């Protein structure tokens, strides 16, 4: 069972993740500030952010790589999870806000709210917020998928209506009277479960938790894809009509995997918010969702590990390039989209595999083959 | 005030030239001279009464006299009681005879006494002057006088308005005067109920908001038949207003729909006809808009006399610029990805990022303004609805583009080849159609139309690197809603969505309306996964 769940690639991935999860907090907490090994706490949060992006990429890969559903609205599930967590953090500020209102967050005082809107009730409890992080994206995905898959909206059409979904949510969350802070979103968080969000210890813990979530997400995806249901999913990806004619209720399989994927994206968003310190409607932008898809494409679609790798690579490049030459970044990202789809249909992992195969096939001419 | 004086002075001259009016100068028993001489006597109430009687003389000189009184320039000479008008800079005032205009010269201190006015007298003067100008030979002056009389109803005006109505020959102005008279009758507590009912009928015919508020006020009339008639009038006007509100919404919807259609119709060709998802479509629209901006800058810099013709140069140029970029995208990227629509989507998204950044690097990130030519600025009135010229031309332009594309696809050899390749690529290939070339041309056509749309959008929207982004989601919605493979789908989709959006806006607000439309499309796709006008037959099987 374990052996089927964790292949060689997965083992390497989980091992690396475990190292990462221990070394980064140690470098941040134990090393003396000023020493070469010391990691400033902003870097810990930055890496933590990459980890949440990797989890989002994983969730996209689960549906796109294994079921052929290209969602251009996965950023919406990510943002909804983020908002659920942000609402809890907002309530935890309590009377330490600018207006010192013990119940209402600052923006509500500012907008003359008398009482907390009904959908904010319960978010003062951490467990409730955590449940919502899973339930809200899950429920939206369930309802949306129920309608879409049952009426056999597939391929490009599905992509476009998911884009419409996240666009509609973007517009909705921009409205002040929605009760989610309008275009400023939710910010100025103080602490989570009593721990100061600015403290290096809290950041290191959140980082380790993100590693754990990514590892857990990976295992869940593996479990799903290696199960019997996973085989059906791949059948649906490759020949949907044929799978249906064989008697499988294709829409239920798709719905299941879509909901699981949305919940994973929600968890990623929930971990993203405390580390970044803000959640606002721009997270719903269709461009963000499309970017998540390109992470998967860069790493290698349908490999899970590749999705995480792609998220790290692209976002690392983004951080470096926007720092060095801000104008170049969009050129680079655009070229990446084109180059990956044209020349690297299986992403970085596909490239590595091809190299390895080429090396194995022609052991006599190793040197020229590698140079190729 | 100077210009108003000048206007009145010219009026004075014009009226002096109108002999018909001069004959009626003796009405009311007293001449203008006699009434003017009585102006300084009595209290303010008497003065207001005399003002009304002066107006009633319809003497051509009355308007100037009353205006001088309003300005506080009328004085009475202590020596002989003559009424003079004193004007000029302070301490250098010169007196003129108020009626004949004869110059008297500077006045000594204490030689005259000013005829004072209070607010009641000023009000009387204003309404009297308004009525006086009803006799002006200049139609524009008569129209503004009638409108002024309508907005300031006063029982005193009834009589002069009736006289003016009888003398008026222009039916349009006569209608305005009749409405002003009706408003004044309704304001008169002493008017006969039958007159008031007739006045209400006149207001019903006018049917705008001002008439509505008068009718609502008349519902409190003590006479039951007047109150009942006012209720009917109110209902009738409200029906008319509701009609025009609906008409306005339809127009705004059509206007929005035409913009959507312009943005989407190129997409309907590339996505609908070729099955290629071109996420860079919005950027092709943006390129068209920037081409217009560049043409405008070039013309301003080197040939300013051509500035009215900016659009004429921009249209073909934008078509060429966007079209060639489109061909480059097709040959460089999409060609390798046929049959893999999702990959095409990602690659063209990459192209869109590159194009955006390219434009941002060249033109800067700020909004650029493209000015409207004269024939596209301003507005005209239909019934109770204002239509701006630029929106009007864009609707026409959108329809023209649609017609041209439909003809191209149905009636030309190129269109025939395009449809052949769409329906059965291999068969077309076997029949000798150069499918690769047709693909490039079709894509170029869709992209060129996007550029042309950009020219139109530059007239109503800011030109910025994000221009395309703001239309891309909407354009996809239009195509998906209308159904692929059919230009009529894009037409129906765009106008349906535009009108639906504008009808929802009054109830839900602009943003909510947009959200509701999006939700509606998402639900609609469930019902008809292939849009309003779905392709039938073999073409459906990808």
TrEMBL record, chain A:
One of its GO terms (cellular component) is plasma membrane. It holds the Pfam family BPD_transp_2. CDD domains: TM_PBP1_LivM_like. It is found in: Cell membrane. The chain crosses the membrane at residues 12-31, 63-86, 98-120, 126-149, 156-174, 204-221, 252-273, 328-352. The keyword Transmembrane helix applies. Its main location: membrane. This is Amino acid/amide ABC transporter membrane protein 2, HAAT family.
From TrEMBL, chain B:
One of its GO terms (molecular function) is transmembrane transporter activity. It is a multi-pass membrane protein. Pfam families: BPD_transp_2 (PF02653). Keywords: Amino-acid transport, Cell membrane, Membrane, Signal, Transmembrane, Transmembrane helix, Transport. The chain crosses the membrane at residues 250-277, 284-303, 309-329, 341-359, 392-409, 436-456, 476-500, 507-525. It comes from the Bacteria. It is found in: Cell membrane. One of its GO terms (cellular component) is plasma membrane. GO terms for biological process: amino acid transport. Residues 1-22 form the signal peptide. Coiled coil: none annotated. NCBIfam families: urea_trans_UrtB. Belongs to the binding-protein-dependent transport system permease family. LivHM subfamily. This is Amino acid/amide ABC transporter membrane protein 1, HAAT family.
């Amino acid at each position: 069972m374990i052996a089927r769940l964790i292949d060689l690639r997965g083992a390497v991935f989980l091992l690396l993740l475990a190292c990462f999860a221990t070394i980064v907090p140690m470098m941040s907490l134990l090393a003396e500030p000023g020493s070469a090994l010391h990691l400033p706490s902003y870097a810990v949060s930055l890496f933590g952010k990459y980890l949440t992006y990797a989890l989002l990429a994983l969730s996209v890969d689960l549906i796109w790589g294994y079921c052929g559903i290209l969602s251009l609205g996965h950023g919406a599930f990510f943002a909804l999870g983020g908002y659920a967590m942000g609402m809890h953090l907002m309530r935890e500020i309590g009377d330490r806000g600018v207006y010192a209102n013990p119940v209402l967050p600052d923006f509500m005082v500012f907008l003359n709210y008398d009482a907390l809107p009904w959908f904010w009730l319960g978010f003062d409890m951490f467990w409730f917020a955590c449940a919502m992080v899973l339930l809200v994206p899950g429920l939206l995905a369930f309802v949306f998928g129920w309608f879409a898959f049952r009426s056999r909206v597939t391929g490009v059409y599905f992509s476009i209506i998911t884009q419409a979904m996240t666009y509609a949510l973007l517009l909705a969350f921009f409205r002040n009277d929605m009760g989610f802070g309008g275009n400023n979103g939710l910010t100025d968080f103080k602490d989570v479960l009593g721990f100061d969000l600015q403290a290096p210890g809290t950041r290191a813990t959140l980082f380790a938790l993100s590693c754990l979530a990514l590892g857990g997400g990976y295992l869940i995806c593996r479990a799903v894809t290696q199960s019997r249901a996973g085989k059906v999913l791949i059948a649906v990806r490759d020949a949907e009509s044929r799978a249906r004619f064989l008697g499988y209720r294709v829409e239920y399989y798709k719905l299941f995997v879509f909901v699981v994927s949305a919940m994973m994206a929600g968890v990623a968003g929930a971990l993203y918010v405390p580390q970044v310190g803000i959640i606002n409607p721009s997270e719903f932008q269709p461009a963000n969702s499309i970017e998540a898809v390109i992470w998967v494409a860069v790493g290698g679609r349908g490999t899970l590990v590749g999705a995480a790798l792609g998220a790290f690579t692209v976002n690392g490049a983004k951080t470096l390039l926007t720092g060095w030459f801000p104008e170049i970044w969009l050129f680079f990202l655009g070229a990446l989209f084109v180059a990956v789809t044209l020349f690297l249909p299986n992403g970085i992992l596909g490239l590595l595999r091809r190299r390895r195969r080429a090396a194995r096939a022609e052991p006599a001419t190793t040197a020229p083959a590698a140079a190729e | 005030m100077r210009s108003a004086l000048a206007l009145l002075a010219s009026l004075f001259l014009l009226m002096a030239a109108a002999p018909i009016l001069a004959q009626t100068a003796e009405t009311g028993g007293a001449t203008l001279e006699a009434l003017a001489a009585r102006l300084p006597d009595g209290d303010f109430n008497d003065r207001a009464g005399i003002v009304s009687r002066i107006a009633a003389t319809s003497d051509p000189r009355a308007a100037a006299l009353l205006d001088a009184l309003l300005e506080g320039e009328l004085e009475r000479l202590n020596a002989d009681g003559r009424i003079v008008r004193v004007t000029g800079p302070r301490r250098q005032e010169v007196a003129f005879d108020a009626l004949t205009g004869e110059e008297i010269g500077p006045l000594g201190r204490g030689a005259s006494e000013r005829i004072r006015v209070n607010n009641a007298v000023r009000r009387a003067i204003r309404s009297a002057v308004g009525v006086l100008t009803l006799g002006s030979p200049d139609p524009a002056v008569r129209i503004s006088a009638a409108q002024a009389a309508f907005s300031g109803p006063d029982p005193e005006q009834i009589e002069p308005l009736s006289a003016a109505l009888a003398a008026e020959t222009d039916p349009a102005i006569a209608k305005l005067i009749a409405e002003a008279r009706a408003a004044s009758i309704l304001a008169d507590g002493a008017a006969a109920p039958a007159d008031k009912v007739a006045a209400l009928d006149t207001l019903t015919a006018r049917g705008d908001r001002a008439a509505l508020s008068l009718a609502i006020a008349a519902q409190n009339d003590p006479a039951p038949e007047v109150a009942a008639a006012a209720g009917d009038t109110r209902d009738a006007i409200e029906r008319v207003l509701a009609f025009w509100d609906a008409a306005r919404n339809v127009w705004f919807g059509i206007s929005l729909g035409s913009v959507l259609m312009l943005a989407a119709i190129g997409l309907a060709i590339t996505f609908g006809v070729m099955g290629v998802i071109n996420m860079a479509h919005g950027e092709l629209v943006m390129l068209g808009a920037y081409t217009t901006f560049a043409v405008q800058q070039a013309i301003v810099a080197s040939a300013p006399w051509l500035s009215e013709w900016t659009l004429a140069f921009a249209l073909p140029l934008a078509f060429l610029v966007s079209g060639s970029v489109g061909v480059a995208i097709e040959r460089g990227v999409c060609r390798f990805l046929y049959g893999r629509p999702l990959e095409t989507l990602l690659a063209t998204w990459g192209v869109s990022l590159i194009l955006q950044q390219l434009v941002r690097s060249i033109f800067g990130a700020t909004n650029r303004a493209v000015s409207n030519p004269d024939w596209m600025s301003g507005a005209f009135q239909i019934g109770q609805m204002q239509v701006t010229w630029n929106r009007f031309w864009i609707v026409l332009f959108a329809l023209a583009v649609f017609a041209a594309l439909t003809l191209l696809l149905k009636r030309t050899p190129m269109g025939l080849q395009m449809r052949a390749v769409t329906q059965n690529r291999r068969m077309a290939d076997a029949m000798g159609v150069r499918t690769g070339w047709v693909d490039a041309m079709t894509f170029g056509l869709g992209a060129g139309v996007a550029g042309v749309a950009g020219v139109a959008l530059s007239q109503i929207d800011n030109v910025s690197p994000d221009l395309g982004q703001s239309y891309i989601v909407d354009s996809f919605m239009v195509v998906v809603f209308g159904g692929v493979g059919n230009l009529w789908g894009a037409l129906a989709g765009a106008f349906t969505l535009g009108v639906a959006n504008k009808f929802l806006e009054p109830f839900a607000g602009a943003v909510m309306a947009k959200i509701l439309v999006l939700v509606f499309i998402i639900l609609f796709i469930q019902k008809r996964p292939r849009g309003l006008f779905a392709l039938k037959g073999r073409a459906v099987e990808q």
